[in-house]
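Hi R.,

Here's the chain you asked about this morning:
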Amino acid sequence: MKKLFIALAMAAVCCPSCLNEEDGMNGGKKEPSAKLVGNPFGEKEEGTILIKLTDKAATALSEGTLNTEDLLAGLQDASMTPVFAGTDCSGSKLSRWHEISFDNGICVETAAAILSEQEGISAIQYNSLLEPVYSAESFEYTPSGTTTKSGTASYLPFNDLLLKDQWDLINDGSIEGSVAGADVNVKDAWRLTAGDPRIIVAILDQGVATKHPDLKESLWVNAAELNGATGVDDDGNGFVDDKHGFNFTDDSAILTYGPNSDHGTHIAGTIAARNNNGLGVSSIAGGSGKGDGVRIMSCQTFDKNGETTSKWVAKALKYAADNGACIAQCSYGYSEMDGYSAGQIKEWMESSVEYEALQYFLDPANANCEALETNIAVYSAGNFNEPFSLYPGAFKDCISVTAFCPDFLPGGYSNYGAGCDIAAPGGDIIKNENEAPCMILSTGIMESGGLNYEYKYGTSMACPHVSGVVALGASYALKIGKKFSRQEFISRLLASTNDIDIHQTGSLDKLRVNTYFVPGDGIKPGSWKTEYEVTDIFVKKGKMGTGAVDAWKFLMALEGTPSFMTTPGEVLTIDIDRHIGDGYVMEISPEDASALGIEGTPVMNNGKLELTCTRIGSGKIRFKSSVGKDEAGVIPELEYYKEISIVSRPAVASNGGWL
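And here is the predicted structure, written out as tokens:
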């Protein structure tokens, strides 16, 4: 039987009354119905199936003239309810989607065959059981044995106690085998913005620990529900008591999480843990301790067992769009089905309820940020070491994220190649399975249930780094008063990366981690298993996306400020006359000079700027001039300026170092 993988291979379940799947074409396997969309194989929720009505049938239903008994004829004890019940779907294709519940004695394959005969139904989709893209391994935080310069108060911009151990944010090369600068280059970007509370990031994952001391002040707050009556839909959005989000797995506002279900909590910390509060970790867009920072909306789509369904994902995407989120952080995705082409999979996915919900989220009519014409969706590329991105990340409207390690090399597990857009820190087990410092440190939950911090790795961990940088970029766009289309915004992100291929030389081996889920047998619960093996990562060269995400360069691209690349200790020469013109006075602020390690004043020689950076960092240089000067001094002159960005990293991109 062909299977659809959502992070893990799941055995297809079929009851005795199901259709014989050994009939038909394609190697003795039965082809799905022409009306079947989404995941045609793999494990499915029994007793329920999703259908999409034709326009004619949907109109008849709204007018009260559709005979649902005829529509559901052949299914015992069947009932029909809207997938997006309680929410406004008027004018949207989503209003045509309904869930059919029926007797569990009829398996879903048989139900699909029966429903496919109905003219009023245009599409049928199994309510597939899915699982998130993440590693089984995680390690509770323990203080590192050594502290280097990155642990000194003068070097770190925030007072968060664990920032010194977060190489993904500030990598000084102190971890054995790491490369200084193999991070998201956010330290100097924080001088421009640390996040705007008007930016809301929806986390489609396991529930976020709303009481975590490093997260509770970063939560999106539904004021009407927070100040309203318990058990009442105070804001009329179709969801009761949704103060910080909603749990779609049990149709409740109570978000669930625990020691084995803290994936969403870890992701939330990378994006928006509170910065500068003197507690634990720092985050990319968690503010500066002055009431700023983006907000996170918990859209729980995975239950405590790590499972979700197509319906839950679709409902969460619509909820996020309807309630103010402008970024969807999604660490899940569909991979290839054995024997079927990527084109076939794409065709099935483009007709699914979750894809239509994704398009609803991305519709300009539902945009939730004044600086963006549409919302942005970010997905994990996958942890299978396969040469393609998972869907939906592979769709052109989304961002698919691969993972690199503290040595700038690809994660041994990371997918690569077709559909992959950009790389971010995801960590890895570089030496052995206990090499926790090489993973991503963020908020978590202890085995005892206490709220703490822990290490995880995977493209699931890389994905929120890009979501965080996107959130930072949207915040900065608001600050500078600019507005971008999705293509403009994403293009600037993808064109502002750092070259990681330069670090891949020769034949490189790295530990690959295989993670898979072993289902329970009714007595023992299911469990995660992990295998380790050495893999050649040289094949990933040039296939990890455009390069490593860079927060500073992205903000410069949004400004329209050109960035010039250099490496510490080397002389950088810039032809200022060509790029800016003559007649300017150069100046650099003490903060920018310190960030770059520039001692003294850069030299101008025959229209060329010469400078040497002594550290990894980013900063600006300003060139001031004036126009309209009156020799007599009666008419005042008008001053103006141009700026350039200097980015000092461990290696210069192959494009010559100019962006």
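One quick note: DSSP finds 13 helices and 25 strands in the chain.

Cheers,
M.
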